[in-house]
Amino acid sequence: MFRFRMQNANGSSARLSPRRVRSQQSKGAPLRLRVTAAAESILRAGHPWLYAESIRSQNRPGQLGELAVVYDRNNRFLAVGLFDSDSAIRMRVLHAGKPKAVDASFWIEKLKAALRARTNLFDARTTGFRLVNGESDGWPGVVLDRYDTTLVLKLYTAAWLPWLTAMLQTISAGLQCERLVLRLSRNIQEVARVRFNRNDGEVLQGPPLMGPVTFLETGLRFEVDVVRGQKTGFFLDQRENRRRIESLAYGRTVLNAFSFSGGFSLYAARGGARSVLDLDISSHALSSAERNFELNQKDPSVSACLHEGRRTDVFEWLTGHRTTKFDLVVVDPPSLAKREADRAGALAAYGRLAALGINHLSPGGILLACSCSAHVSADEFFGAVRNAAATYKRGYTELEVATEPPDHPALFREAKYLKAVYLRFN
C-alpha cells in the first residue's frame, strides 16, 4: 500500500547563508558563482538549468553534487543548486528567489508538493504512475515512478549521487513501499559504479526481484522490467493516449508500429478491436507484449481479439507491405532526435512515417502519430504530420492533439517532449 507519511522535520527554516552551506555541504568556503546578465534573467524567470558558458566566475573549483550559490551583480542571493563540473548543465537549480535553507524540511516539502499534485488523479484501477517528474516537480534530474508496491528512482545527473542516502531517507519518510530500485542514465553509470559503488538496476531497499513487476493501468495488468527496461521499465507517459485508442478501437483492425510491450495493442483489444498487429525490431519487446495479453485473457474482448507480433524493421515493413490496410494505425517511434543536430533528420523521418502510416489506412481509418523527441517542438512535429496528410487527396479531419499527461508536468521549454495527433481520413 502507498500513502504519504508525515515526518517531523529536524532541519531549521533559517535562510540559506554561506555559513549554513559550509556546515551542510563543505568544510571549505561555499561555492559561489557569478553569471552573465542573460543567465540572471533566465534564473529569475524560473528556468532550472545554468549552463557552463553562462558562468562568469567562481571562487573555487566545485565538487560533484555540492551546493552552489549564485549571486547577482549586486551581490544578492539569486539561486542555489547542485553543481556538476562534468556536465554542460553546470548547475541544476533547487531554489531561486529569496534565500532558503536546503535541509530536511526542504526535501520533505518538495516530496509532499509532488504528491499533492497527483491527488485524485488515479484510483485503485491504476497502480502505475509518476510520483516525481524532475525539474517540473522541483527535483531536477530525478524521476520517481510507482509500479504497484515497487518504486523506481531514476537519476539523470551524477550530481545526485552524493545525496543518494539523504534522498532515500526522504522517500522512506514520505512513502511506504515494498521495494525501491535505482536506475541510472547511461551517461552516469560509470561514475556511479567507480566513485559511489552504485549500479543501474540495483535494489536499494526491500527484497530482491525474482522477475518482472506487475501493475495495473485502468484495470489492465502489465508486466514491467524495472531493472533493465527502457526509462524506468514502461512508457507511463502514454497512458492517456492508450485510453483514447481504446475508445476508438471497436470493430477495427489495428496496426501498432514500434509496439514495444503492446500497451496500445492491449487497450485496443479491450476496446473491441477485431485484430491487432504489433511491429517491433525487439523480440524481447514482442515477447513482453504476448505476456501482457496473457495476463488479461479473462477480459472477453482481449481474448476475442486476434493478436500477432512480427519482429521487423518498421520502416521496411511499412514500405514493403503497402497493400495491407488497417482501420487504425498507431505510429509511436522511439526518440528520433536525441540531440539538436538530429532535429532536421528527425522531422523528415516523422513526415515519412506519417505518410507510410496513412498509406496503410482503410477508408475512414484513423492515424495516431506520436513523438517523444524534446528537440522537435510540437508545432514542428504537428506540421510534419499535417504536411504528410496534405499530400493525400482523400481528405482528413484532425480529431485532437495531446501532450504530456498530468503526472508528467512539463513546466519549461526543454521539458516539453511528448506530442500526439489523431487524424481521421476519408
Describe this structure in words.
- There is one protein chain.
- The chain is of the alpha/beta class.
- The chain folds into three domains: 18-96, PUA domain (Archaeosine Trna-guanine Transglycosylase, Chain: A, domain 4); 104-213, RNA methyltransferase domain (HRMD) like (Transcription Regulator spoIIAA), CATH 3.30.750.80; 235-425, Rossmann fold (3-Layer(aba) Sandwich).
- The protein is built from twelve helices and 20 strands.
- The strands form four sheets. The chain has a seven-stranded mixed sheet with strand order 16-15-14-17-18-20-19, sandwiched between helices. Strands 2-6-5-4-1-3 form a six-stranded mixed sheet. Strands 7-8-9-10-11 form a five-stranded mixed sheet, with helices on one face.
- Helix 3 packs across helix 4 (164-174), helix 6 (239-248) packs parallel to helix 7 and helix 11 (343-359) packs parallel to helix 12 (378-390).
- It is globular, with a radius of gyration of 23 Å.
- 42% of the residues are buried.
